[in-house]
Design a protein that fits this description.
single chain; globular; alpha+beta; six-stranded mixed β-sheet; 123 residues
Length: 123
């Protein structure tokens, strides 16, 4: 089995897409992700669309659970208009699980909850 710690971008894209398309798929949403979906007017099928069709443009970050990484899948989705959506996800190939951590617009710099991706927002 491929260990998440060693997935390069190409492998991660393939594995996340395969998990998302599996009939055995299990999805878990953090409360934060559900709040961000509501805030942005997106729905869960948009998240699934991104996970089935997206690409990875950022380096993975270690998850709090040892041996797992957080990946940022991005693409345009049906309810996103011309904007790209980024889904932060922790895949678990063995359990056929995708844990959704957050959902955001790729072009946004600030949310109602504060800044994102560790950057200060300057107006």
């Amino acid at each position: 089995m491929l260990n998440n710690s060693y997935w390069n971008d190409e492998d991660a894209i393939c594995e996340i897409r395969n998990i998302a398309r599996s009939p055995k798929l299990d999805i878990a949403y953090k409360k934060h992700a559900l709040e961000r979906l509501s805030e942005r007017g997106l729905i869960m099928s948009d998240v699934l669309y991104v996970l089935k069709n997206g690409f990875i443009h950022l380096n993975p970050e270690p998850a709090t659970r040892n041996g797992y990484n957080k990946y940022a899948m991005e693409c345009r989705c049906p309810n996103g208009g011309s904007r790209e959506v980024r889904v932060i996800v922790i895949p678990d190939k063995k359990a056929c699980l995708l844990k959704i951590i957050s959902v955001m617009w790729v072009d946004e710099k600030k949310t109602r909850a504060g800044t994102i991706i560790g950057e200060e927002y300057n107006e």
